[in-house]
Fold this protein.
Amino acid sequence: MEPTVPTVSEKLSRYLDAEGRLKGWPSKRSDQRQALDYLAARLPAGVEWSERELNELLKSLHTFGDWALLRRDLYEVRLLDRSLDGRRYWKVPRA
């Protein structure tokens, strides 16, 4: 299943480049959450990734070079889930 094109607020648009990639990480947690929701909306549903595959995907969605931060935060706010051994990741279905 292809990812959807998420709606972008004026505030979030300041953190995006012309290709829709995050070019910086917001300092406010509420803005970070909006950025995480945006990233999650760009990830395809129904797909499992290895950590390496997810890292590569996240690299393509931002330009500031911290895919590990993005991966951890997406998991922390339950937009992604992972296997117990941390080797497989998937998008959490929206209710």
